[in-house]
């Protein structure tokens, strides 16, 4: 409570002239709730022991005005006071008598005997239980051995029976397989003999057929050679006819070529004659045109010279006229008196 008063006085001035912040209502309850909240204990014990808290008892509070509108509180605490642990009161010592000691010894002996008897009884009970357990265990083991032996004997008998049955079945299968193999071998030998016979027969028949085929092929070859000879003879006759026809056509073509060459030469001669005539006509026309052009040029030159002469004469006249005008101006200037400044 005292700490709360000091905090309130520090946070708010008594004069109310300064603008110190005012805490909201209910802040004490909130701080108390925060302090009373359970704190989680750390897992595991700390390595070092924490020192014991020492209680301080306030003895005096002083208030002093340090500045205008401000107060300072000084709390003086007393020296730490340790709380001594309470001690048990010392009991008065008693001197036991001989009778009490003997009674205590007798009671201790009786307790020891009763403990030994109870221990022996417990040991005997445990031994009886152990013997009973060993007997039961031996009986169980004997029963288990007997049952397992009977089961093994039964399994061995059944296994022997199954093995003999399996062996007999395998022998029967092997016998059947051997019989089948023998049958297949005999059938294969018979088939091979038949195949050999068929091959020999086919070879014989093939030889006969081969001879017949050879004879037929020879006859066909003879017929083919005769046909080829006939075709060759016919082709020779055709080639001769074609050669004669080609020779005739070549002669006709040569004659026609010569005739065409003569015609072309005649046409070229006529063309050259025409060209010579045209050239002579053109040259005559060119001479006439050149003569006309020369005449026109000479006349134009004469006319140009005449025009130039006329212009020169006109220029000379103009110069003479200008000279006369100048002379007249000079004469007038000389005859007229100079104006006096007045």
Automatic annotation (TrEMBL):
Protein name as it appears in the record: Stathmin-4
Pfam annotation, one family: Stathmin
Keyword terms: Coiled coil
MF (Gene Ontology): tubulin binding
GO biological process, one term: neuron projection development
Record-linked PROSITE patterns: STATHMIN_3 (PS51663)
SUPFAM superfamilies (alphabetical): Stathmin
């Amino acid at each position: 409570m005292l700490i709360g008063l000091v905090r309130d006085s520090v946070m708010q001035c008594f004069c109310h002239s300064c603008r110190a912040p005012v805490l909201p209502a209910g802040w004490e309850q909130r701080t108390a709730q925060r302090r009373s909240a359970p704190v989680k204990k750390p897992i595991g014990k700390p390595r070092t022991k924490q020192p014991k808290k020492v209680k301080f008892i306030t003895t005096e509070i002083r208030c002093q005005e340090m500045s205008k509108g401000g107060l300072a509180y000084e709390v003086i605490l007393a020296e730490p006071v340790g709380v001594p642990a309470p001690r048990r009161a010392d009991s008065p010592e008693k001197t036991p008598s001989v009778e009490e000691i003997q009674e205590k010894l007798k009671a201790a002996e009786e307790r020891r005997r009763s403990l030994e008897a109870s221990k022996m009884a417990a040991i005997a009970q445990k031994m009886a239980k152990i013997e009973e357990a060993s007997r039961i265990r031996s009986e169980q083991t004997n029963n288990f051995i007997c049952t397992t032996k009977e089961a093994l004997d039964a399994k061995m008998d059944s296994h022997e029976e199954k093995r003999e049955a399996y062996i007999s079945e395998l022998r029967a299968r092997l016998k059947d397989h051997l019989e089948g193999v023998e049958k297949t071998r005999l059938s294969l030998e018979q088939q091979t003999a038949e195949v050999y016979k068929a091959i020999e027969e086919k070879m014989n028949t093939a030889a006969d057929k081969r001879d017949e085929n050879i004879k037929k092929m020879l006859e066909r070859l003879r017929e083919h050679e005769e046909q080829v000879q006939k075709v060759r003879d016919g082709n020779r006759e055709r080639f001769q006819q074609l050669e004669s026809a080609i020779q005739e056509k070549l002669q006709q073509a040569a004659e026609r070529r010569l005739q065409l060459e003569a015609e072309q030469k005649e046409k070229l001669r006529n063309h050259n004659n025409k060209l010579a005539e045209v050239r002579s006509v053109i040259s005559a026309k060119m001479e006439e045109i050149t003569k006309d052009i020369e005449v026109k040029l000479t006349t134009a030159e004469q006319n140009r010279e005449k025009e130039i002469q006329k212009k020169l004469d006109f220029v000379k006249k103009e110069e003479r006229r200008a000279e006369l005008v100048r002379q007249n101006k000079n004469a007038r200037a000389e005859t007229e008196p100079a104006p006096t400044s007045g």
